[in-house]
Amino acid sequence: MDNHEINEKLMEAVESFNWHAVKEYLDRGANPNYCRFKDEDSPNGLMQPTTPLRMVMFRISDCDLTDQDLGQFREIAKLLVEYGADTKPAMQIAEVRYGKYDSNEPVSPFMDVWHVVAGVR
Fold first, then answer.
1. Can you tell me the distance from the alpha carbon of 51 to that of 48, in angstroms, rounded to the nearest whole number?
2. From the CB of residue 39, how many other CB atoms can be counted at a distance below 10 Å?
3. Tens digit of pLDDT for each residue in 56-65?
4. Rounded CA gap, 78 and 87, in Å?
5. Residues of 8-33 as b/e, b for ≥16 C-beta within 10 angstroms?
6. Which residues contact 54 (CB under 8 A, 6 or more apart)?
7. Residue (of 121, 109, 113) closest to 53 by Cα position
8. Rounded CA gap, 103 and 121, in Å?
9. Residue 7 in contact with residue 34, Cβ under 8 Å?
10. Would you tell me which of 31, 49, 82, 104 could form a disulfide with 55, CB atoms 3.0–4.6 Å apart?
11. Per-residue pLDDT reduced to its tens digit, 18-63
């Protein structure tokens, strides 16, 4: 599997909130900072899930997700950060989509994910 292919597999695993597959692809050399395209290459660049951690922040707003699903995204976010994922692009998409980050927001499965990306928990 070439670099592009394994990185795309990582993105698919993140999108489907499959922690085990995310771990497998990272262990096989997938780049936790893989970027599908630069923000400036698209008119809606900041709104696009172009990196694995951005995909996490993009997906957590899905109204069909359960608290358990959000817990999976929290664990995936932790894993990506452990493997060196840059949190800045994920914070950018989160703040464009959800507003300014506030560490004092009430505890919730959604905010648990955001706290991990913000480096608070």
1. 9
2. 16
3. 999 999 999 9
4. 11
5. bbbbebbeebebebbbebbeeebbbe
6. 48, 89, 90, 92, 93
7. 113
8. 10
9. yes
10. 49
11. 999 999 999 999 999 999 877 666 666 567 789 999 999 999 999 9
Query: Which run of H or E residues covers position 71?
Result: helix 67-82
DSSP 8-class letter at 42: S
The tokens for 79 are 């894993």
| Assigned token pair, 101 | 């980050």
| Structural tokens at position 96 | 């464009």
> What six digits make up the tokens of 72?
């999976």
CB atoms within 10 A of CB 35: 14
Report residue 71 as tokens: 């817990």
